[in-house]
Design brief:
The complex is a heterodimer. Helix content of chain A is about 75%, strand content about 5%. The longest helix of chain A is centred in the first third of the chain and has 54 residues. Chain A starts with a helix and ends in a 6-residue tail after the last helix. A 6-stranded mixed beta sheet of chain B has the order 6-7-8-3-9-10, with helices on both faces. A 5-stranded antiparallel beta sheet of chain B has the order 13-12-11-14-20. Chain B has a 5-stranded antiparallel beta sheet with strand order 15-19-16-17-18, with no helix packed on it. Classes of the chains: A mainly alpha, B alpha+beta. The interface between A and B is medium-sized, with 19 and 25 residues.
Chain lengths: ~300, ~375
């Protein structure tokens, strides 16, 4: 009897508790997002806004800069530095293509043929990361040095004659030529190509290869019609992970190249840190960002991998 | 089937075997699958049935022996040059292609340009006409299975290989697909070789069943023949359930008389696959549904000439159409009896003293030198 009397007032309390709990549950995703969002706001969004405003300022270091909505800076920057832009995209594109050509067979081997060596090979792919980027690039300076073994061999085989004729190298030098920069870029970004390629190849069900063979596809056709299309997500993310940072890179161009091989990254760095022309540097950064964004969007649209990812 | 054998499209395996390191997955075996037949390779997992199928497909290289198809040696041909197609266990549909392109894959690889008509017809045959533009992941398991069948059949292979194609489906859908596959096979008349661990599936679908165990074919025959006349304890236990009673041969003539469990049981000599010397041991087998049960008090009413065993019911379970009894007797600790539920038999409950009786003609004899429990557990695993 007493129980039935006490029950009604108890009901709203539990209801309230339930409602509170469900509200809390609904908020969980936002709480989990918070650290990431804070990080992005402080270290990405705010600097971006700051740089955007810098790019439309005029003035000088002595007198100070102020926002004058001077969009002319963009046009001037593009006019003055378009060779570096083109060069950047060209070098980054070449390096990306080379990474793909070098990385695909290796990723294929790791995914399908390495057997129990798979993890060892994967560690070897990542191993260079244990040394600083800068030191590794400096090492390439030694490797490609004038009179070094590489140059000697290429010279003896008359390969340098060909590459010089193509304009990739100059007379007997490799260092301080476009080839050296592209080699450095290729080397430094190769793991970023291999790892996504490996992941997407490794996910392919081996029975699909058997099914293709069973349906009269030769091994070559199986690769063309089944393996490669199914590895497209890896190809897309690998090329993006290579191309985007490579197009903004300046270390390789600085250490392995010459003034004739300057990439837009070097220009931005020089404008910011040596010439101290902040508006031009900021404008260059935004142009680069826009160009890369447009290229990437077109690329993803055209590769049509949305429903494979 | 006999008239089809003359057409010469038979699959012939001669001394075929497969060894992985020191493990013999398939021991040298000879097998002939007549053209146009629905042939089942039946066995528990790891018995070598899938390996045998993969060797026919060319996905696995035979360690020894030859495979020929219609008189042509195909042992060394790569899979893409063999006139056979496979329906894989997991279907292995190409996820990046729609259903039309999946089905057209084989045709396109052989350079056929106008595939639309054939693909449409094939999708109609498997009743998937409306799904042509979908991707495999948008289809249910049963639909994917039918796409896999269509993708293989459209190439008009000489032999269609089916690797447990119904394994991933639930029971009801599986039964439905069994009938469907049987219908398609009759319609197209292609040789089907079907690998399965489900004895019921093998028996419903196939003309001929080869029961495999430990890398060997234990017995081969029509389903009814295998069921009625198992030659080994493995087949007796793996295909359905058998009561196996150990006994000693007393006399042998047109009937063999065996002393077992304190009584005498008879069986026709032609149904015995073991040596029949007097004094020799023999395993007597009888299927549970062939046995009738009588209460011990009504034992007088049993007709003369029937085999009798007395015992006590230890367990009974009602399963609708029939009741299954487990009877303990001197002849065997757990004899199984299935009685149709035609009338209510109130006296037959656990603890009741009963007489089991059956027609001696329904008894078969097996060599007592075998493991009496061979194939028993495997059947429970599979179910």
């Amino acid at each position: 009897m007493t129980v039935t009397k006490e029950a009604p007032p108890a009901a709203p309390v539990t209801e309230l508790k339930v409602r509170k709990a469900s509200t809390r549950k609904r908020l969980v995703p936002y709480w989990l997002l918070l650290p990431g969002i804070l990080w992005l706001v402080v270290f990405f969004a705010l600097p971006l806004v700051y740089q955007a405003s810098t790019s439309v300022q005029t003035g000088s270091l002595e007198k100070g800069f102020e926002v004058t909505w001077h969009f002319q800076t963009y046009w001037d920057a593009l006019k003055d530095y378009y060779p570096q832009f083109i060069r950047s995209l060209l070098y980054a594109g070449t390096a990306t293509l080379l990474c793909l050509l070098l990385g695909y067979p290796l990723a294929y081997l790791i995914a399908f043929k390495a057997g129990r060596w798979r993890n060892v090979v994967l560690v070897l792919v990542i191993a260079p990361f244990f040394t600083s980027f800068l030191i590794r690039t400096l090492a390439w300076k030694t490797i490609l040095a004038d009179g070094g073994a590489v140059v000697d061999v290429l010279n003896t085989l008359h390969i340098l004659d060909v590459t010089s004729w193509l304009g990739w190298t100059e007379s007997n030098r490799v260092l301080a030529t476009p080839m050296a920069v592209v080699c450095g870029l290729t080397y430094n970004f190769l793991p970023f190509m291999i790892l996504p390629l490996y992941t997407s190849l490794e996910r392919i069900d081996g029975r699909l290869h058997e099914a293709a063979g069973d349906l009269y596809a030769t091994p070559a056709t199986t690769f063309r019609k089944v393996t490669f299309p199914l590895s497209m997500p890896g190809v897309v993310s690998g090329t993006l992970l290579t191309f985007i940072p490579a197009s903004g890179d300046y270390v390789n161009a600085e250490l392995l190249g010459s003034t004739d091989t300057k990439m837009v990254g070097s220009v931005i760095q020089t404008q910011f840190l040596r010439v101290l022309d902040y508006p031009t540097a900021a404008a260059l950064s935004f142009i680069l960002m826009a160009v890369v964004l447009i290229m990437v969007t077109v690329y993803i649209r055209r590769s049509g991998t949305e429903d494979l990812v | 089937m006999t008239q089809q054998q003359t057409e010469g499209g038979d699959v012939r395996l001669t001394g075929i075997s497969k060894t992985y390191g020191s493990f013999k997955a398939v021991k040298p075996l000879d097998l002939t699958v007549p053209q146009g037949s629905f042939f089942a390779l039946l066995g528990a997992s790891g018995c070598g049935k899938t390996t045998t199928l993969r060797m026919i497909a060319g996905l696995e290289e035979a360690t020894t022996g030859t495979i020929s198809l219609g008189g042509r040696d195909i042992t060394d041909l790569p899979p893409y040059k063999r006139p056979v197609n496979t329906v894989f266990q997991s279907y292995a549909l190409f996820p990046h292609l729609d259903i039309t392109e999946n089905v057209a894959f084989g045709l396109r690889r052989r350079g056929i340009k106008s595939v639309k008509k054939q693909v449409d017809d094939m999708l109609e045959l498997v009743q998937l006409g409306d799904f042509a533009k979908r991707k495999p992941h948008q289809l249910s398991g049963g639909q994917q299975q039918r796409v896999a069948v269509a993708r293989a059949l459209i190439n008009h292979p000489q032999v269609l290989l089916l690797d447990e194609p119904l394994g991933a489906l639930d029971l009801k859908l599986r039964r439905q697909m069994q009938l469907e596959l049987k219908r398609i096979q009759t319609e197209v008349g292609i040789t089907f070789i079907h690998v399965t661990h489900d004895q019921e599936e093998a028996m419903t679908m196939a003309d001929t069943v080869a029961v495999m165990n430990g890398g060997r074919v234990e017995q081969l025959g029509a389903p009814a023949d295998l069921y009625e006349n198992p030659k080994t304890t493995f087949v007796a236990n793996f295909l359905g359930t058998s009561n196996l009673i150990e006994g000693e041969i007393v006399s042998a003539g047109t009937d063999i008389v065996v002393a077992a469990g304190g009584g005498k049981l008879r069986l026709p000599t032609e149904r015995c696959s073991a040596p029949t010397a007097n004094g020799g041991k023999l395993l007597l087998g009888v299927r549970p549904e062939k046995i009738s049960l009588a209460h011990a008090d009504d034992a007088d009413a049993i007709a003369d000439g029937r085999n009798r065993v007395t015992g006590r019911i230890v367990d009974s379970s009602f399963i609708g159409v029939s009741t299954q009894y487990v009877v303990e007797s001197p002849a065997g600790k757990a004899l199984q009896v299935y009685e149709q539920n035609v009338e209510r038999r109130a006296g037959l409950r656990a603890g009741a003293e009963v007489v089991l009786h059956w027609n001696p003609a329904h008894t078969f004899g097996l060599d007592a030198a075998q493991d009496i429990d061979a194939g028993v557990e495997t059947v429970e695993d599979a179910a």
